[in-house]
Design the sequence.
């Protein structure tokens, strides 16, 4: 791990770049449509269909994109190729929730194909693919996350809720014995709409998040692909999501999403949308409206 002092210095730099195109446009409406509404969307949040894994892109407009995880393989490139403007080869920030292949595999090609402004990651991984990714990242800028860190965006902000930075005390070591439970957790507020990206957090990290608060959002990326060990009742009661996005592969060997978890999501009152059934799911934020556009119905 590099020293935090070095990497954190990049955050103000990023903030200055992003603040240069700052635009505030609050809104509250939520709807479901085929995506044929009037006017060009100001911002979009994509949950890519990458099979068994996670990859979400926040396109805030004005040529500013943030990628959260990259899925297991090159599938993410297809999604990026379809939505990145031809003239824009720069992704301002990549956040890696934790170093498991179903989240970082696609980042290896992403960092070589795109000009990535900075990469936020918090844990050491193992294996040749991960080493290759870290080597590529070293050539650029790396940000170590910290709880409470705020990254201003045009029209919003990303707040880091769980840092999961390795330490030497025993509680911290225990936390890192399960990389899922040390996932970087990001909360996005964009044009008045809110999203939570908890990576593969399981029960232990959900409990920590409950203590830190600020979980109430409209859109929840369901943690850990809808596994039985995540999305506890208490967690869902605090999040109170309107939309639950499950990112998982068709007929995956883990049985994700777990039927018990799906029924907890239903009880929580959210509308569940799944990448394995609906393909890439797009949230279009236009002024005060939010529209959800699945690739397949
Ligand atoms: Zn995963």
Sequence:
């Amino acid at each position: 791990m590099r020293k935090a002092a070095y990497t954190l210095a990049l955050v103000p730099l990023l903030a200055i770049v992003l603040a240069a195109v700052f635009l505030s446009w609050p809104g509250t409406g939520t709807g479901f449509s085929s995506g044929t509404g009037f006017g060009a969307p100001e911002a979009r949040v994509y949950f890519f269909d990458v099979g068994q894994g996670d990859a979400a892109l926040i396109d805030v407009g004005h040529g500013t994109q943030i990628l959260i995880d990259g899925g297991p393989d090159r599938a993410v490139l297809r999604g990026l190729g379809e939505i990145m403007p031809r003239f824009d080869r720069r992704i301002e920030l990549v956040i890696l929730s934790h170093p498991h292949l179903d989240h970082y595999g696609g980042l290896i090609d992403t960092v070589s194909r795109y000009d990535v402004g900075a990469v936020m990651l918090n844990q050491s991984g193992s294996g040749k693919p991960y080493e290759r990714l870290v080597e590529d990242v070293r050539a650029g800028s790396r940000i170590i996350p910290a709880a409470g860190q705020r990254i201003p965006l045009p029209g919003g902000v990303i707040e880091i809720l769980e840092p999961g930075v390795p330490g030497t005390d025993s509680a911290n070591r225990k936390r890192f014995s399960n990389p899922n439970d040390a996932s970087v957790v990001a909360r996005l507020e964009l044009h008045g709409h809110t999203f939570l990206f908890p990576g593969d957090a399981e029960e232990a990290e959900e409990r920590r998040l409950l203590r830190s608060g600020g979980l109430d959002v409209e859109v929840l990326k369901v943690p850990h692909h809808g596994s039985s060990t995540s999305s506890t009742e208490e967690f869902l009661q605090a999040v109170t999501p309107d939309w639950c996005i499950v990112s998982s592969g068709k007929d995956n060997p883990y049985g994700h999403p777990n039927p018990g978890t799906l029924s907890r999501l239903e009880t929580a009152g959210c509308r569940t949308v799944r990448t394995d059934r609906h393909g890439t799911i797009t949230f279009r934020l236009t002024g005060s409206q939010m529209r959800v556009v699945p690739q397949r119905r």
